[in-house]
Amino acid sequence: xxxxxxxxxxxxxxxxxxxxxxxxxxxxxxxxxxxxxxxxxxxxxxxxxxxxxxxxxxxxxxxxxxxxxxxxxxxxxxxxxxxxxxxxxxxxxxxxxxxxxxxxxxxxxxxxxxxxxxxxxxxxxxxxxxxxxxxxxxxxxxxxxxxxxxxxxxxxxxxxxxxxxxxxxxxxxxxxxxxxxxxxxxxxxxxxxxxxxxxxxxxxxxxxxxxxxxxxxxxxxxxxxxxxxxxxxxxxxxxxxxxxxxxxxxxxxxxxxxxxxxxxxxxxxxxxxxxxxxxxxxxxxxxxxxxxxxxxxxxxxxxxxxxxxxxxxxxxxxxxxxxxxxxxxxxxxxxxxxxxxxxxxx
Amino acid sequence: xxxxxxxxxxxxxxxxxxxxxxxxxxxxxxxxxxxxxxxxxxxxxxxxxxxxxxxxxxxxxxxxxxxxxxxxxxxxxxxxxxxxxxxxxxxxxxxxxxxxxxxxxxxxxxxxxxxxxxxxxxxxxxxxxxxxxxxxxxxxxxxxxxxxxxxxxxxxxxxxxxxxxxxxxxxxxxxxxxxxxxxxxxxxxxxxxxxxxxxxxxxxxxxxxxxxxxxxxxxxxxxxxxxxxxxxxxxxxxxxxxxxxxxxxxxxxxxxxxxxxxxxxxxxxxxxxxxxxxxxxxxxxxxxxxxxxxxxxxxxxxxxxxxxxxxxxxxxxxxxxxxxxxxxxxxxxxxxxxxxxxxxxx
DNA sequence: GCCACGGGCGAGAGCGCTCTCGGATCACGT
DNA sequence: ACGTGATCCGAGAGCGCTCTCGCCCGTGGC
Lengths: 346, 346
Prior knowledge:
The structure is a homodimer. By secondary structure, chain A is of the alpha/beta class. Chain A contains 14 helices and twelve strands. The first copy, chain A, has helices at 10-17, 21-28, 36-49, 55-62, 77-80, 84-98, 111-122, 140-147, 173-186, 202-214, 230-243, 255-267, 287-290, 302-322; strands at residues 67-73, 102-108, 128-132, 151-154, 167-171, 192-196, 223-225, 249-252, 277-279, 297-300, 333-336, 338-341. In chain A, the strands form three sheets. In chain A, strands 2-1-3-4-5-11 form a six-stranded parallel sheet, sandwiched between helices. In chain A, helix 6 runs parallel beside helix 14 (302-322). The longest helix of chain A has 21 residues, at 302-322. The first copy, chain A, starts with 9 loop residues before the first helix and ends in a 5-residue tail after the last strand. The interface between A and B is large, with 60 and 60 residues. The structure holds a DNA duplex.
C-alpha cells in the first residue's frame, strides 16, 4: 500500500520478451524495422508487465519534454472573473493532448512570480510556452526571449520591448470595436460614449482605437477609462452620465463593464435600449445573456484561438527539431475575426 | 538564434569552480558539509555560467518530479461557464508554487480522455493528483487507485467504487442547502421549491439532501431536476410554475440556474422577492451580483479549498517520502463551511 | 610524536532510456 | 557454392544528475 511497486523498466520487458533493450525501444516508439513476430512478443511482454516508459529518462536523452507551459500573467481580476481563460485553456488543452503534449500551467500574480516563472522557463522543463494577458511593460517577454524558448502570445504583446518578431494570436479588437460603434450609429445614435478597458492592456487600447476610427471627431468627454470590471463599469457610467447627460449609446470595452453600466443606467431611470443603447465586447457567457436586457456584444472564438496558439507553437517546435528553424511559413500573427451578436440592448 | 545554446551541465560548473561534480551538487541542493570558501566559488561559477539543473536528469535518480497533476473531468458545461474552476486553480497554484511544485493540467471531456489520463497518471510523470468534478460512476478514481498515486479529490467522490479511503475536500453542501431553505422559511415562505443540479454529481445530491432535511414532508412536485445551466434553470422553473403555481420560494442548486429561474419568473410576471423569493448556491461572481435583482446565495471559499487540497496532497507526498506512509494525521475529508450571502432576491 | 577519529571532498556507479554502429542472418544473382 | 546487399537485431556508450564510499587531511588525546 505504502510503497509504490517498482515500475518495470525497458530492461525487464526486454528480458521477458527475450530481446534486447534496443528492440523493445524500437517497438515502443513505433519505429519500423522489427519483424512482426518479435514485435508481437514485445508487445505482449509490455502488456503483461504493465510497462510504461519513464519520461524523465527519455527526455534526458531526447532533450524533448513533450510539454509546454501556459503562462497566465494576471494580477487577480479579469481572468478569474470570466470564463474566457477557461475556454482558451480548453482549446489549448485539446490541441496539445491531440499531439501528446502536456500542459504545465503557470499562474502569476506579482513581480516575484515573474522571476520564478522566468527561471522555470529558462530551466528547460518545457519545449515551449504560450503566454497570456500581458500588461504593457511586463518583463516576462524579455525574460522569455532571452531564454530562447519558442513562444506564442495570446493577444498582441506590447511592442515596446523590441519584440517585433513575436508570434501572437489575437482577435480583431479594433475591427470588432468599429463594428460595434457602427452598429450603434446605424441605430440612429449620435452621442456614442466609450468605456475603455484597462489601458495597460493592448486589447483595451485596440478597442479604443477602433472606437476612434469611427468616432474621430467625438466629444472627448465621451471616452472614460474603465478597468474591465463591473464596478469599474459602474463608476465610468456614472461619470459619463454626469458629464454628458445627453448620451444615447455606450460601447463598453467588455461585457462585465457593460453589465455594470446597465445597472447604473437603470438606476438613473434610463431605459435600455430606448434611451441608451449598450454594446459590450467578448460575448462572455453566461453574463451576456443574463443581463437585463440581454447584451448586444462582439463575439470572438476563444476556444479556436486557443487551439491555434497551440498549433502554431507545436509547428514551430517541430520545425526547430526538423531542420532550419521557424522560417518555414509560420505566420508572425493571426488575427481572428469578430462577429456582432445582436441581443436586446442595442 | 535557431539553435538553443547548449545548457551548461554540472560538470561544466565543477570544472570552472575547480571542484568535483559532487560538490557542486551539494551546493546547488543546499546540503551542508561544504566549506564556505568552496561553496562561494561554486556559486560564482553557477552564476557566471547561468547554470540551471536539468530536471529530467534529477528526477531520473530521485524519482521525484515535484509536479502534481490537476485533473478536471468535465464534459463541457459547468466548469467552463463559471469562474469556480479558475478560482480553485488559483488556490492550488499558489500553494503548489510556494512549495516549488509544478502544476500539470489535464482536462478531460470524454471517455477516451479518461483512458489517456489514466495512462498518464500511471506513467509516473507526477508525484500526485488533484481530481475534480467527478461524476458518479466515473472510472477515473478506480484507475488512479490502481496506479497507487497519492490523490486528493475536490468534492466528495461517489462512494460506490469502494473508495472509502479517498481523501477529499468539499464544502458543506448539505448544510448550506439547509441554511438557504431555512432562510426562506424564516421569510415566512412555505411553498419552497428546489431546482436540483445534475444528480450524477454528489454536490447536487448533497444539496438536495439538505433541502429535504428541512422540507421533509414537502410536496414532491416542488422538486425538479436541473443540470446546473441557466437553460436548465429556465426549463425547471417553467415546469415548477406549471405544476405548482402557488409556490412562493425557490432554492436553486446553483446561481446559474437561479439566474435562469429569475428570468422565467419575470417573464411570468412574478415579482422577486415579493411574490417568489429566490436563493442560489455558489455565490458565483459576477453573475450573482448582476442578476435582477441581485441574488441571495450560499457562498463557499473556493480558493481556500483549492489551497487546502494542494496542502493535503503535498503533506501526503512528504509523508510517503519520509517514512511510514500517510497514517500520520492526514484527515480523510475536510468539509468547508458555507455562508449565506443576503442580497435582494430573498 | 603517534594513532584514532571525524569532517570535507572526489571517484565512480548507476538511474532508464535512445541511438549509433557493427555483426548476424538471409535471399538472391552468378 | 560463393559473394553481395539488404535487413534485422544487440552491444554499448552516454544523456546529466545523485549518492554512496572511501580517501585525505586536520584535529585531539595519549
